[in-house]
């Protein structure tokens, strides 16, 4: 029964249409479609869905597991649905095919219509083109007609004006008095029109006269028989009228200018611009300005710049005062520029005339008063400021005037070269500027040297004696060289270079002038440095002369010897003082040269680059200028070495005792300290070395120390050969040699160190036993055999053991034989001894 009910139910459903094409339009949902389809077959599906919603979306059937009891009910429904879906698909395909055919038909019709429209548009465009051509032709015809009409009107107007001009020209050609002219030429309200007509008449008449003169091959003149003779009268009358009219305009212009009424001034200026482009009116206006007419204005400028009467003008005061006066000039020109812009049709031309007059007259008068050009033959004295005062004022005036010209240019000057005009005011001063600068540096140098010479102590103060003691003053007798003086030279040169850059800004003239200025510095420093070194050398010579004065013989009284020793000490002090003074002079000379080199690198070198070879040539000049100073320095250094060695010889002679190197054998322990003479000599040399180290450097220091060491080595050898040595004295000599060797290491001269090391070994000949002498000579003293043989003669036991020494020498050196010069001299020395 159940199956029958189901089948009857399915058959009833299949008899109806289950699907519609509209169901698939829009957004299709299969779930909704299925619910709608199965709602009649499975009503419990909707009830279960409602219960699920009431219980929060949790299905009991789901919880208890799926059931498939109603599946057979859905099978017929799904089969019918499938059949209807297939039918619907066929229906849709049929409709789609029908639509495609309709679309193709419509598209074909549309293309035909579009083609017909395109043909119609082309025909329409052709019609429009023909219409446009016809319109253009009509327009051109109308334009030609308009041009012809305009030309005809212009010709008519020209003809009318020509008739009027001919009428006026006939008046000017026939009248004898200007009062008989038409009212136009005498009516003040129609001055502009009269001026324009008069200018046209002049152009016609003058052109006709010139053309007529060229036609007969000669200029037209009164009385010449040519067809244009009558127009010459018109030309003369027109010229007279124009002059009279311009004078009237200028008179009206002046009257309006006095009232400061700008409108009439502008009207007159505009009309007068037809006569010589209005130049006369501009000149008239510029010339009527109070700053050009009133003498008091220019005198006030000069008073402000020069200051109170009786005061000397300085560059600092001039800079401040010129700035103030130029500021007033700028304000005056600025006010005049406002009036000129409102009055003149061509304000640039008027401003050019005004600014030119300001620079040439007002500024020129100021410059003439503050810059009287000095003479190179008779320059002003240094009390009056010298040439330097003139150059400083020139630089300040030039700089401030250029600044003024730039300010005036910003106000407006038309085509006027304001800066060039300002520079032309200084043309006479700049022509001889380089010579003035060099003469100024020379004048400053001469004044400085005169000042330094005046500060030197007088001859009575240089060299004095102290009553009966006959002790020479150890104070320096010559003024020492100063770096501050050269610093002042460099400062002068730097100031001169700055002025040169300002007054000759062009690169090539600047390089030439700078080189000449730097050459002045080289000459000044070379002269001052050489003179300072020569003065220091004179002190060394004086000290040497003093030493020679107090050299005494051996057979003198004790009192005379004591006085001579005291004087010799004073002379030694003078020598040491002169040594130090010369080293200070050398040090300051080095500093001076360094300052010049620094000035060249930082200031001069870059300015010489525009001229080929100028830099190298200047370097050569710098080296050549210092050659005299270098020669004086080398001679002085040699004198310093002589001074030191003379004092060393004096100390050794005065302090060295015979018992120092040959003490008596009294059983006392030998003294291992250096001798007093050694101590004094080393202390003295240390003081001299300190002075030399502070003054010398580099190769100069190395050469000086090497020469000093060699001379000391030679002097010590000569000194020690005056003494006799026993073994105890040899140890004392060994201590002295060690002391000297340690001291000369501070010379940092390897050759000298080597000599003194050999000297320390050489004195061992006084210490070893006689039988060991020649072993020593054959060993460590092989290179100093001659000196060793001479030193052996100074041994105390030499007299007693000379035979043994000769025999030992012949046995030790059989290859020498009788032909050996060393051996022969050694034997001869024995015999003489």
Automatic annotation (TrEMBL):
The keyword Coiled coil applies. The keyword Transmembrane helix does not apply. Residues 45-65 are annotated as: Disordered. Keywords: Coiled coil, Exocytosis, Transport. GO terms for cellular component: exocyst. One of its GO terms (biological process) is exocytosis. InterPro entries: Sec10-like, Sec10_HB, Sec10_N. It comes from the Eukaryota. Residues 79-187 form the Exocyst complex component Sec10 N-terminal domain. Residues 193-455, 469-799 form the Exocyst complex component Sec10-like alpha-helical bundle domain. PANTHER family: EXOCYST COMPLEX COMPONENT 5 (PTHR12100:SF0), SEC10 (PTHR12100). Belongs to the SEC10 family. This is Exocyst complex component Sec10. It comes from Adiantum capillus-veneris (Maidenhair fern). The lineage of its organism: Eukaryota, Viridiplantae, Streptophyta, Embryophyta, Tracheophyta.
């Amino acid at each position: 029964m159940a199956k029958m009910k189901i089948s009857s139910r399915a058959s009833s459903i299949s008899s109806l249409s289950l699907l519609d094409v509209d169901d698939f339009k829009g957004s299709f949902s299969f779930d909704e479609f299925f619910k709608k389809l199965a709602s009649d077959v499975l009503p419990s599906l909707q009830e279960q869905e409602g219960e699920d919603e009431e219980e929060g979306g949790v299905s009991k059937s789901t919880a208890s597991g799926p059931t498939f009891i109603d599946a057979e009910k859905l099978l017929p429904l799904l089969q019918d649905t499938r059949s209807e879906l297939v039918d619907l698909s066929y229906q849709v395909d049929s409709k789609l095919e029908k639509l495609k055919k309709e679309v193709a038909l419509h598209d074909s019709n549309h293309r035909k219509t579009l083609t017909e429209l395109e043909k119609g548009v082309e025909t329409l465009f052709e019609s429009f083109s023909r219409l446009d051509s016809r319109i253009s032709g009509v327009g051109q015809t109308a334009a030609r007609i308009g041009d012809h009409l305009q030309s005809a009107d212009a010709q008519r107007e020209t003809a009318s004006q020509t008739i009027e001009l001919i009428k006026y020209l006939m008046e000017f050609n026939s009248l004898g008095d200007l009062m008989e002219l038409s009212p136009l030429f005498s009516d003040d309200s129609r001055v502009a029109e009269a001026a324009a007509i008069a200018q046209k008449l002049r152009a016609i008449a003058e052109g006709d006269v010139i053309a007529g003169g060229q036609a007969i091959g000669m200029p037209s003149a009164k009385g010449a028989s040519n067809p244009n003779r009558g127009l010459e009268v018109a030309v003369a009358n027109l010229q007279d009228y124009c002059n009279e009219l311009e004078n009237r305009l200028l008179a009206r212009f002046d009257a309006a200018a006095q009232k400061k009424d700008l409108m009439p001034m502008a009207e007159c200026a505009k009309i007068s611009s037809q006569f010589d482009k209005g130049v006369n009116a501009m000149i008239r206006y510029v010339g009527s300005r109070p700053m050009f007419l009133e003498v008091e204005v220019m005198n006030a400028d000069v008073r402000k710049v020069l200051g109170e009467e009786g005061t000397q003008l300085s560059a600092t005061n001039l800079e401040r005062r010129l700035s103030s006066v130029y500021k007033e000039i700028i304000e005056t020109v600025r006010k005049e520029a406002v009036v000129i812009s409102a009055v003149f049709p061509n304000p640039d031309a008027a401003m050019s005339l005004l600014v030119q007059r300001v620079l040439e007259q007002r500024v020129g008068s100021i410059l003439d008063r503050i810059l009287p050009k000095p003479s190179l033959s008779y320059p002003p004295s240094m009390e009056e400021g010298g040439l330097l005062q003139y150059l400083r004022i020139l630089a300040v005036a030039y700089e401030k005037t250029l600044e003024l010209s730039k300010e005036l240019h910003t106000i407006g000057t038309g085509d006027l070269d304001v800066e060039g005009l300002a520079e032309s005011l200084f043309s006479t001063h700049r022509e001889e500027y380089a010579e003035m600068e060099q003469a100024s540096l020379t004048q400053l140098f001469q004044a400085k040297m005169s000042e330094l010479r005046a500060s030197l102590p007088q001859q009575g103060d240089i060299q004095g004696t102290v009553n009966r003691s006959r002790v020479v003053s150890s104070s320096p007798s010559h003024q020492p060289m100063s770096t501050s003086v050269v610093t002042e030279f460099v400062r002068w040169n730097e100031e001169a270079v700055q002025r040169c850059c300002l007054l000759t800004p062009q690169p090539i003239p600047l390089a030439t002038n700078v080189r000449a200025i730097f050459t002045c510095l080289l000459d000044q420093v070379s002269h001052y440095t050489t003179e300072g070194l020569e003065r220091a050398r004179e002190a060394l010579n004086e000290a040497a002369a003093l030493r020679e004065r107090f050299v005494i013989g051996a057979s003198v009284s004790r009192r005379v010897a004591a006085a001579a020793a005291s004087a010799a000490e004073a002379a030694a002090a003078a020598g040491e003082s002169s040594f130090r003074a010369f080293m200070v002079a050398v040090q300051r000379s080095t500093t001076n040269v360094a300052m010049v080199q620094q000035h060249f690198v930082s200031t001069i070198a870059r300015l010489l680059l525009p001229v080929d070879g100028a830099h190298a040539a200047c370097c050569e000049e710098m080296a050549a200028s210092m050659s005299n100073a270098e020669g004086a320095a080398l001679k002085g250094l040699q004198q310093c070495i002589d001074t030191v060695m003379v004092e060393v010889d004096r100390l050794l002679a005065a302090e060295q005792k015979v018992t120092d190197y040959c003490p008596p054998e009294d059983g006392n322990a030998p003294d291992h300290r250096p001798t007093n003479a050694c101590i004094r000599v080393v202390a003295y040399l240390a003081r001299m070395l300190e002075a030399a180290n502070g003054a010398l450097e580099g190769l100069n220091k190395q050469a000086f120390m090497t020469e000093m060491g060699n001379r000391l080595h030679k002097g010590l050898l000569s000194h020690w050969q005056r003494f006799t040595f026993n073994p105890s004295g040899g140890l004392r000599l060994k201590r002295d040699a060690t002391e000297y060797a340690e001291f000369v290491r501070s010379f940092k001269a390897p050759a000298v160190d080597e000599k003194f090391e050999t000297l320390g070994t050489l004195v061992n000949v006084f210490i070893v036993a006689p039988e060991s002498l020649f072993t020593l000579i054959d060993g460590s003293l092989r290179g100093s055999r001659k000196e060793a043989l001479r030193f052996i003669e100074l041994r105390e036991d030499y007299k007693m053991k000379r035979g043994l020494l000769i025999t030992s020498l012949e046995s030790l050196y059989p290859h020498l034989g009788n032909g050996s010069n060393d051996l022969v001299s050694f034997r001869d020395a024995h015999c003489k001894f």
